[in-house]
Specification:
Shape: globular
Number of helices: 14
Largest sheet: 7 strands, mixed
Bound molecules: ligand 7TS
Distance between the termini: 40 Å
CATH topology of the largest domain: Aspartate Aminotransferase, domain 2
Strand content: 15-25%
CATH superfamily of the largest domain: Type I PLP-dependent aspartate aminotransferase-like (Major domain)
Helix content: 25-40%
CATH class of the largest domain: Alpha Beta
Length: about 400
């Protein structure tokens, strides 16, 4: 078992007060908090080795370049990519997905089909819609059931030789449902489609193995896994990254530039135009080390206990409904109370120091499915405690009484 109090001491913000109350931070789905080792590593970079990378012969530039590339290799091993050049630094999941959809604009033709799921975050819907508009391809949607699970027979039925891309999230941000991505990838490949997995909500909870999954692309954000904002990774299989055109043009992504013709750099630089978030990329490696030192088995054990306790305690409240009741779930509880707007509950419990997200969670199609304006979402991390959940439950009860 983890020593949670010891872990909490790593996160300075967890001992802050908000609105005069000890902070209870349950908005981990939006962004995680950062341990001191990550905060210190950012300062250390700027204090000791700040320089631009991949360009200078001078010592600092080489030190910064080495640190950046060591972080890339660390992340390669973390997700078990075959090559480090399959690991692209991005500014986050949104950037990674747009890089891929931009690339497919030169591949898709009218009549081709893109399959997305009904459980997606807007950032894994809108770029594909834009791509379909541009190319004349058609967007198809895997429906969900009342438990918030994808209807797999309907997914099977959507697949045909017209399917060129399938994309789903590993874990739903709004409901916490874990999707059967291995099955989805295998079936999509059987009809020759490429698969992008949106791993934004998965990487704080588990260690994805991209070779075992056999996905073609896997996108995630650093800030949800204890890393800095403005960092992310797009994993792409070498053959796909070679096939796709560059996303942005600029410095560092070229081999040779003349006004007649420009040739592009090899992977991964072809997709990394301009000066990146150097400190962020390096410190994402620090965050990955931090999580691995805690261990994902330990993280899951703690988070499963939090999920079970929160589900049980919240359901004691009359009129409370949880959305996303499927079996395979990460530590996210999305709920509403009969006749009360989620925003009102969120505002009252915020005054009590409790941070949850209310609203549609950038997943409006899910809210439309349940015919609700939004939910209250409590998303837990390994540094949260059973006592904090009890505090939230009492606060929600109090808010209910005030609003009824
Ligand atoms: N995909 C999923 C599944 C997400 O949950 C998010 C962010 C994104 C993509 C976009 O990530 P970004 O880092 O590029 O912004 N989700 C949330 C959330 O649930 N609350 O705030 C942001």
């Amino acid at each position: 078992m983890l020593d949670i109090q010891k872990i909490r001491a790593d996160f300075p913000i967890l001992s802050e007060k908000v609105n005069g109350k000890p902070l209870v931070y349950f908005d981990n789905g939006a962004t995680s908090q950062k341990p001191q080792i990550v905060i210190d590593a950012i300062a250390k970079y700027y204090q000791e080795i700040n320089a631009n990378i991949h360009r200078g012969v001078h010592t600092l530039s080489q030190l910064a370049t080495d640190a950046y590339e060591i972080s890339r290799v660390k992340i390669q091993h973390h997700i078990n990519a075959k090559f480090s050049h399959e690991v692209l630094f991005t500014s986050g999941t949104t950037h990674g997905i747009n890089l891929v959809t931009n690339g497919f604009a030169s591949i898709l033709k009218p009549g081709d089909e893109v399959v997305v799921s009904s459980l997606e975050h807007h950032s894994n819907i809108v770029p594909w819609q834009m791509l379909c508009e541009k190319t004349g391809a058609t967007l198809k949607v895997i429906p969900m059931n009342e438990n918030g699970e994808l209807i797999i027979e309907d997914f099977d039925a959507l697949l045909s030789e017209k399917t060129k891309v399938v994309t789903v999230n590993h874990i739903s941000n709004a409901l916490g449902i874990i999707n059967p991505i291995k099955y989805i990838i295998e079936k999509a490949h059987a009809v020759g489609a490429a698969v992008l997995i949106d791993g934004a909500q998965a990487v704080p909870h588990l260690k994805p193995d991209v070779q075992d999954l056999d996905c073609d692309f896997y996108a995630f954000s650093g800030h949800k896994m204890c890393g800095p904002t403005g960092t992310g990774i797009l994993y792409g299989k070498e053959e796909w990254l070679n096939k796709l055109p560059p996303y942005q043009g600029g410095g560092e992504m070229i081999k040779e530039v003349t006004f007649e013709k420009t040739t592009y750099a090899d992977l991964p630089h072809k997709f990394e135009a301009g000066t990146p978030n150097i400190a962020g990329g390096i410190v994402l490696g620090t965050a990955v080390d931090y999580l691995n030192n805690i261990g994902f088995d330990n993280i899951q054990e703690q988070e499963n206990a939090l999920l079970a306790h929160a589900t049980k305690r919240l359901l004691e409240i009359e009129g409370l409904k949880i959305y996303g009741t499927g079996k395979n779930k990460a530590s996210v509880v999305s709920f509403n109370i009969d006749g009360i707007h989620p925003y009102d509950i969120g505002s009252i419990i915020d005054k009590l120091g409790i941070a949850v997200r209310t609203g549609h969670h950038c997943a409006q199609p899910i809210m439309n499915f349940f015919c609700i304006p939004g939910t209250i979402r409590a998303s837990f991390s390994f540094y949260n405690t059973i006592e904090e959940i009890d505090t939230m439950v009492e606060a929600v009860k109090k808010a209910k009484t005030m609003l009824s």
